[in-house]
Each structure stands twice: as C-alpha cells, then as structure tokens.
Write a sequence for this structure.
C-alpha cells in the first residue's frame, strides 16, 4: 500500500500557511448541507465539533460519557506547551519544533510537527478568549513553567487542573453550537463499528449504553477523536474506561494502526501498592521543576527504608544518589519521560527501590522549600531568617504552585509530602501510536479522520510533557476545520447520506453478531479478569524494556488468552439493556487484538527509540541505540488474525540532522 502523507511542497515554515491559503474551500451554502460525525468530545473532539459547527457544517457528536465534561482530557494536570516566548528565554516556533522532533527520537513527521508548533500560539489566545484561567505573573502576563526535555519555560498551566479548565472552555464552545442547533449531541452512545460505503467512511453504528439499542448514523465523513489506548496495560494513569474500540473497529474496516508499540511510561506516578489495584495515579511532571529524584546510594539503606527501619529523613545528603542530576547534568531532573523512567528502573533493578514492592524512588522538595523560602523571606524584608521560617515560607510557595497535587498525594499515600519526600515510580500514561493519518489528518480510508491521542502523527517515539493538550486542541481548533475541506469540497454534490444502504445493514448485523457471540459464551470468567491478565502480559513483555524472546512469548500468551476469552468469558444480563459488563467485554476483545499488534510492532522494530527500548539495542552505559539506516519509518499495521501486515511510511528529514539524543 502506498502511504502518501500528502505533505505540501515548499519551505518548512511556509508549508502550512501556503497550503491553508490555497486549499479547496466549501462555500457556506454547501456547508449547511454537509453532515459530519465527530466521535469523542474530549479536547480534540469538542474543539473540532464546536469549530466545525461554527463554520456551518451539520455536526453529530458522540461520546460514551454522560457529558463531554467527563472526557479523560479532564485529568490533565500539568499544562500545555506553546511557543509564545513570554519568558524571553530563547523560545521560538523553531525551537518548539526542534525539541519535539528530538524528544520524539526522530520518528515523527517534520511537516506535522512544525505546523503544531506554529498553531500552538493560537491555542493560548483561543483559550484565553474563552476565559480559561491560566496562571499569571504579577505583571499580568501568563505564567510558564518547564517540562521535561526542554531548556525553556513554555508550559502554560492552570494550577494542577489545566486539562479540566481547557475542557470547560471547549465544552462551552460546544454547548453554544448545541444550543444553536449546528451540533447534535449524542451522550452515552458508544461507537461499535465504522460504515464504509463505496470506499468512503459514511457513518457509524452505535450502542445506546442506557438501553442497549443499536443505531445507524450517517454523514458525509467521520472524525474519530476517541483518545488513547494505554489501558491495554490494564494498570495505567488513564481513566478506567479509556479504550481502543472506536479506532480498532476502524482498523477492522481497513484503517491502519501506526506505531502501536510506542508507549509512554511516565516517571512520576504513585507506585503500585498491591495486586488488587485497578488504577494508577499520576503526579504531574510539573513537580520535576522543583522536586529532586533520588535513591539511597547503598542497597542496605534502601532495604532499611523498605523494611521501615529507616525513613528518607535518616539518609544524610552524602548518602543519597540524585541519579538524574548525576547522569544527565545538562537537563538533570527535567530529562524527558522515557529517559527518567528507564533511569528509575535501573536504580530499582540495582536493589535501591524504597517502597515495599521495591518499585519506587523518592521525589524530594526540600531544596525547593529552602530556595523559595529564602526568596520569600528576602522579598518580605525578613533579615537572617532561621531555617524554620525559611521552610515555612518555602512550603507556602510550593503549596501555591502545586497544592492540589500535594493534597492528592497525601490522600492516597497517607503521608505528608511537605514533611516526607514523595515516593514515585513510572507507569503507563500515554500512547504515541494511533490511527495512521496524512497531513490532512485523514486515515487511509477516505473520509475517515483521526484527531488528538487517537492518531499517531506528532510525537514520534516519545511525547514531551504538555504536548498532548497542544496537539489535541491544534487538531480540533486549527487543523481539521481547514483540512476536512479537502475531502468535503469534492462532496458538495453528494446528497445527504442515508442509513438505508447495504453497508449500513451489514455493519449493523456484524455488530449484533459480535455482541451476541460475546453474550453467548456464558463461561466462568469476567471481562475484568481477562483484562488484568492481558495487562500483566503487556507490562511484562512489552513494557519499559523489551527483547525479542519476551515479545515472542508475550505474543503467544496473548493468542492463548484470546482463545480462552472466547471460550470462557462470562457476561451477566442481556444485550438489550444497560450492561457495563458487556461494554467492558467488547473493549477487552479489541484490546486483545491490539495487544498482539503491539508485540508484533515491537518485534519488528529492531532498535531502541523513545518509549520503545529493546534490550538488545543499547549502548554500554544503557542508553537507547537507534538504527536510522533501517528504521526511519512509521510502521502502519493492517490487522490480520494470522499475521498483521506491515506497511511503511518513510520519514524524510530535510530540516533537522538526525543525532543521537543526548541530555547529558
Ligand atoms: C493523568 C493524566 C494527566 C495528563 N496531563 C497532561 C498534561 O498536563 N498535559 C498534556 O499535554 N497532556 C496530559 N495528558 C495527556 C492528555 O490528557 C491526553 O492525551 C488528551 O487529553 C487526550 O485528549 P483526546 O481529546 O484525544 O481524548 P480524550 O480526552 O480521552 O477523549 C476521548 C473521547 O472519546 C470518547 N470515546 C472514546 N471511544 C468512544 C467510542 N467508542 N464511542 C463514543 N465515544 C468514544 C470519550 O467518551 C471521550 O469523549 C495527561 C494524561 C493523563 C492520563
């Protein structure tokens, strides 16, 4: 299959401006006749639905939640990147582009990333106009903080609730369109299948989650903004019901899944405490602006802490290993997530973990309390303040910055992080892979578009912190409203699509058969049981580090698990009613196919890059070794039960030189 990314010609920094100024438009009178389905109303989907509605299209928006406000985007804590250079610290569109390409380990598409950096500035203006309460400096300018992998401050934030505030902004715009009638909202509707008619995406099949009713919905094109699939690992920082179903149904209808093995493991999460857990909690990366990561230098001290004979406070400064500062002096605690996560694994593999399971390291704010405390005392005119005053003032400053995160930590861990360093460990957090899309955000199925975390396009093998919100909103507010016109300008003579055709009937029947099959198994194990076992296989063999033998074993285990799933699954109740167990089971069925594809993708990629670390390909000091000669491509997989089929999009770098990523 020829994967044409449709990258416009011209200089990198002129491509987008020129392209959007010369592309085909749909006239207002035609827009009013054209229908668009948007599935997903998180940041990417709500932004897209609102903007397309405002432009005059007839939009139908779907979410399985009871309100767009529930989308997982609401969980985003730390912030959103934009190249505004308010700090005057050397930021620019080019630097954001470069940092993102480098951060993604040179496995993303130059043109898409540059466009993302360009429109990042518009997003902030848009959000401010909507009333999003970003933090401000004393002088009134919006405040910024730093995230990993960069040396400038370009992250805009609203305390630790940035996603929530941005989502309220997008939801507000969406609500306006709903009230004006340009967007029809379908809450509690889960997409079950994609309808492809005469080679174009023309509709979806949904299940009304409250009544169980299967419905057909038609439109001139379909936009998927259905989020990421980190929950294939069962334990992750994602909301419990994040899933891959919409994207995977599209894959079953011919769309390609790109780079599925690129998984982001976030270094600062609350460590797992036991086997009964179904969710992990993120402590925002913003905390690494001020927190210092360490483990005891000796295994004995670590053991004493694990056994409760010592605490962090008993370990003197000279016996602590601030390993990120030691190994990566240029970026220190702000190395990118993949690097920080692997370093934590190395420390705990050496036996220096500081929680009972052995899988934890410290994140310590003592130096920040002192630094901020001294500065606060100085500005209050307190001369020669004692340590007690300094620490008190410092803690107040930190509380103003991260108070809600500290409270959350204390509620979960039962330990006061103002007194005792936090305990953290890496956890699955984000998926860089997703549906393959071209420059127009269109998949290889004509008329099917994918936005936000559901597509693969901008982050390469590793996403830099605070770039997902940027991408979701860029896609929704500023890219799709233009690029969808490239497809729709050829559809102005197409009458309204009806749901009567055979393609709709076939998709409806196949959905009913799929769900009936699941209901009919009547075995002995819950969907949760299979999901948990799948997650363990994924984490063990396709997690923070991978090798060929493990990946092959993992793949075989998933195939066995899939067989067992279809032989021994138990779902209570019936199909024609509210049935959360059926919802879960259908999602797990899709995760089982995705999981195998991830193993196959990771097996194929015989190199280490970003979040994909193959143990066979590392330097002597344990750093990732890319293979640019053989692997500078995007893998795009066609699902096939026997053996997924690989298609490749070669990545061409004309503006940056491929270098070994170094943060030392
Ligand atoms: C704890 C946490 C903190 C984060 N913090 C940050 C941060 O500070 N900065 C940052 O840049 N990124 C952050 N991220 C990542 C970021 O939040 C997400 O990548 C982003 O919000 C995804 O947005 P989205 O619109 O693509 O998808 P989502 O917000 O996940 O929305 C998906 C939508 O699709 C709908 N949907 C899914 N499947 C179906 C279906 N089959 N049928 C109907 N509807 C469906 C859902 O109902 C929902 O409306 C964080 C992630 C986590 C887990």
């Amino acid at each position: 299959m020829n994967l044409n990314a449709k990258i416009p010609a011209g200089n990198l920094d002129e491509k987008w401006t020129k392209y959007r100024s010369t592309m085909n438009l749909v006239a207002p009178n035609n827009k009013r006749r054209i229908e668009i389905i948007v599935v997903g109303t998180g940041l990417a989907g709500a932004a897209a639905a609102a903007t397309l509605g405002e432009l005059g299209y007839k939009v139908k928006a779907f979410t399985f939640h009871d309100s767009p406000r529930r989308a997982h985007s609401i969980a985003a804590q730390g912030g959103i990147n934009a190249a505004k250079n308010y700090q005057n610290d050397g930021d620019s569109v080019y630097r954001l582009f470069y940092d993102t390409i480098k951060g993604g380990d040179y496995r993303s598409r130059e043109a898409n990333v540059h466009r993302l950096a360009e429109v990042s500035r518009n997003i902030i203006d848009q959000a401010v106009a909507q009333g999003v309460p970003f933090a401000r400096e004393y002088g009134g300018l919006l405040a910024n903080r730093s995230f990993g992998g960069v040396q400038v401050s370009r992250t805009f934030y609203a305390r630790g609730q940035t996603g929530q505030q941005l989502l309220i902004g997008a939801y507000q715009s969406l609500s306006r369109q709903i009230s004006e009638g340009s967007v029809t909202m379908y809450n509690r509707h889960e997409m079950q299948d994609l309808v492809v008619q005469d080679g174009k995406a023309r509709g979806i099949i949904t299940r009304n989650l409250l009544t169980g009713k299967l419905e057909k919905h038609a439109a001139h094109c379909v936009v998927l903004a259905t989020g990421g699939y980190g929950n294939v690992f069962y334990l992750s920082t994602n909301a419990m019901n994040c899933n891959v179903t919409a994207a995977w149904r599209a894959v079953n209808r011919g769309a390609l899944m790109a780079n599925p093995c690129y998984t982001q493991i976030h270094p600062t999460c609350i460590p797992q405490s036991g086997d009964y857990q179904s969710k992990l909690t993120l402590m925002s990366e913003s905390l690494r602006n001020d927190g210092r990561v360490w483990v005891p230098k000796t295994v004995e001290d670590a053991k004493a802490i694990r056994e409760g004979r010592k605490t962090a406070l008993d370990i003197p400064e000279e016996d602590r290993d601030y390993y990120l500062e030691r190994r990566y002096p240029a970026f220190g605690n702000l190395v990118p997530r993949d690097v920080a996560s692997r370093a934590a694994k190395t420390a705990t593999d050496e036996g220096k973990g500081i929680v009972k399971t052995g899988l934890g390291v410290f994140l310590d704010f003592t130096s920040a309390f002192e630094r901020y405390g001294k500065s606060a005392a100085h500005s209050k005119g307190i001369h020669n303040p004692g340590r007690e005053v300094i620490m008190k003032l410092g803690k107040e400053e930190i509380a103003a910055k991260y108070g809600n995160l500290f409270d959350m930590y204390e509620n979960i861990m039962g330990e006061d992080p103002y007194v005792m360093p936090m305990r953290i460990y890496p956890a699955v957090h984000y998926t860089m892979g997703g549906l393959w899309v071209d420059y127009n955000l269109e998949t290889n199925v004509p008329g099917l578009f994918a936005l936000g975390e559901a597509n693969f396009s901008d982050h390469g093998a590793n996403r830099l912190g605070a770039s997902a919100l940027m991408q979701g909103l860029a896609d929704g507010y500023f890219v799709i409203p233009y690029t969808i016109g490239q497809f729709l300008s050829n559809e102005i003579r197409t009458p309204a699509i009806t749901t009567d055709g055979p393609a709709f009937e076939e998709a409806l029947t196949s959905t009913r058969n799929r769900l009936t099959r699941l209901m009919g198994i009547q075995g002995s194990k819950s969907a949760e049981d299979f999901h948990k076992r799948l997650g363990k296989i994924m984490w063990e063999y396709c997690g923070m580090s991978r090798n060929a033998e493990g990946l092959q074993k993992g793949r075989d285990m998933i195939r066995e698990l899939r067989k067992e799933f279809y032989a021994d699954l138990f779902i209570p109740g019936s199909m024609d009613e509210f049935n959360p167990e059926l919802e879960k089971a259908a999602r797990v069925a899709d995760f089982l196919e995705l999981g195998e594809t991830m193993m196959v993708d990771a097996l194929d990629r015989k190199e280490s890059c970003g979040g994909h670390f193959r143990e066979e390909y590392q330097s002597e000091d344990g750093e990732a070794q890319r293979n640019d000669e053989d692997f500078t491509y995007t893998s795009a997989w066609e699902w096939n039960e026997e053996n997924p089929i690989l298609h490749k999009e070669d990545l061409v770098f004309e503006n940056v030189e491929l270098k070994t990523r170094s943060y030392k």
